[in-house]
Amino acid sequence: MNAPLYPTYARYDIAFERGEGAYLFDTDGRRYLDFATGIAVNALGHCHPKMVEAVKRQAGRLWHVSNLYRIPEQERVAAQLTENSFADAVFFCNSGAEAVETGLKTVRRFHHGEGDPRRWRVVTVEGAFHGRTLAELAAGRQEKHLAGFGPSVDGFDQVPFGDPEAMKRAVTDETAAILVEPVQGEGGVRPMPPGYLRALRGIADAAGVLLFYDEVQTGMGRTGKLFAHQWDDVAPDVMAIAKGLAGGFPVGACLASAKVAGAMTAGSHGSTFGGNPLAMAAAGAVLDVVLGDGFLDNARRIADLLNRKLGSVAAAHPGIVEEVRGLGLLIGLKCAVPAGGVVDALRDDGLLTVPAADNVVRFLPPLIADEGHADDAARILDGVCRRLGG
Ligand SMILES: *Cc1c(COP(=O)(O)O)cnc(C)c1O
């Protein structure tokens, strides 16, 4: 592998040439059950007919015009998102990193607009992952991501996982917002403890700071609700989403309440590509499907089934899998053996998964998965556990 590319990725020596539903086919024609979904991106699996149709239609009509003009396709997707969430306004961009960065700018700008520019710091939670911009590296505070990138960007504080008292102490009169993933994804599929988001809401309201969710990974139906925080019914003021939003087309978005979004006046932020008609055709098609009658009910049903099946495989092989955790179709297997080896063995047997921190194997099935896929995944995991000798 000597391609003229940055050596930033430790890639598996495998390439795919076709995808169909929950399956990928490699260049040798071998079929894989795709429970990696491009890291929670292919929410509808591969080449969903509704997405293919929408993108084909738009590709022959108009790709890009810039936000100098009104973009009806963007207005439609914004309406789909706001009608189904806490939010009143949306800013579109092209990745999770940009979505979170937009949120970070929004929370600072909000307090500036309120005449309280001293509030500019953001408190995050240990184990967080918020993206790869310089500010987001500082927000996540992972040594392995920061190494060699110079002085860390100022303005971020971090508290231990799931500890509301520590959060309360960390919020000062310089704090603009609390930033949290309802379930940490990269950090090892760690759901926040019950009641934690509600406690954060209380702390934020009492101190006059904003609550900012990073739902880049947990959003768009991944956990069985459109957004993970809807399980707790605790709304934020600002929220970043991306990964599954356009099912594989690069789209991110930052959502906010009217009073917060109002601080981002004309000229305060922008994106050349953000929300262009082609991207919005993809996002609109995904939302049409995900918001369709019974779609999320079905995702929740499969999630319950898959969690049960994986749970019984894990129980039979405690020497390999210590715990099955997560929410909905964001599933983590905390391993007793190196998780990377389990991911490799599963891939050898035709099942794609993703490693995460804390020695976890992530199962991120497409939301269109069915019982047969759940059966196959559990069977393959069982075979791997036997082979690994647990
Ligand atoms: C993936 C991810 C990001 C970064 O998204 P990119 O599209 O890779 O920039 C940010 N936050 C969370 C929670 C993520 O899972």
Protein model, in words:
By secondary structure, the protein is of the alpha/beta class. The chain folds into two domains: 16-34 and 293-387, Aspartate Aminotransferase, domain 1 (Alpha-Beta Complex); 50-290, Aspartate Aminotransferase, domain 2 (3-Layer(aba) Sandwich), CATH 3.40.640.10. 36% of the residues lie in helices and 19% in strands. It contains 13 helices and 17 strands. It has helices at residues 37-40, 49-59, 72-83, 96-113, 134-140, 143-146, 164-170, 196-207, 258-261, 277-290, 295-316, 339-348, 371-387, and strands at 16-20, 23-26, 31-34, 89-93, 121-125, 156-159, 175-180, 183-184, 190-191, 210-214, 238-241, 252-256, 321-327, 330-335, 351-352, 354-356, 360-363. A seven-stranded mixed sheet has the order 4-12-11-10-7-5-6, with helices on both faces. A four-stranded mixed sheet has the order 1-2-3-15. The protein has a four-stranded antiparallel sheet with strand order 13-14-17-16. It is globular and about 65 Å long. The mean pLDDT is 97. The structure holds pyridoxal-5'-phosphate. Pyridoxal-5'-phosphate (PLP) binds next to helix 4.
Characteristics:
binds pyridoxal-5'-phosphate, alpha/beta, Aspartate Aminotransferase, domain 1, 17 strands, 13 helices, globular, four-stranded mixed β-sheet, Aspartate Aminotransferase, domain 2, seven-stranded mixed β-sheet
Mean pLDDT: 97
Rg (C-alpha, Å):
21 Å
Name the CATH architecture of the largest domain: 3-Layer(aba) Sandwich
User: Can you count the beta strands?
Assistant: 17
